[in-house]
Amino acid sequence: MEQDIVDGERISLRLEPEDLELIDSFVEQHPEFSNRSHLARMALRAFIEKDGAKVSAPSSGNRVTVALAPRLKNVIDQLIDEGELLDWNSVVQDALQRIYMSKRMDGSIDKAHEKLDKIEARM
Predict the structure, then answer these.
(1) Domain total of the chain
(2) Could you give the 3-state DSSP secondary structure of residue 52?
């Protein structure tokens, strides 16, 4: 008989209903995760392995590091060198502004702000 249960120690985790809905929705849309536990295991491992799981906020407060495909980075670097684009800061801000405004128009940003407000209220 094949064992479907992963060997290992069991832990208990309490989550809010909104968090469980978010997790269930994600698992439903991503068949590579068989269930909540599988997603949690993979997410925890990825979090811990990423840069040693540095959780502290950067001293600059509003800086973000983004990994890009080498080809995309090279194209943007070339466009900056040729003067077609100003600099990396303006490229990222412009792209995010366009995404933000299009999402704002369809209401998803406002929904995200409401969810964030609820999460912050629980903290």
Answers:
(1) 2
(2) helix
DSSP symbol at 84: S
Are 19 and 36 within 8 A, CB to CB? Answer: no
Closest CA to 91 of 75, 70, 115: 75
pLDDT, one tens digit per residue, over 49-98 is 776 555 554 445 677 778 888 888 889 999 999 999 899 888 988 888 88
The whole-angstrom separation of Cα 27 and Cα 29 is 5
Domain that holds residue 24: 13-55
**Can you give the pTM of this predicted structure?**
0.39
Cβ-contact 36, 24 below 8 angstroms: yes
Domain annotation covers residue 61: no
For residue 102, count CB atoms less than 10 angstroms from its CB and return exposed for 0-12, middle for 13-18, buried for 19 or more.
exposed
Q: Does 121 lie in the same domain as 82?
A: yes
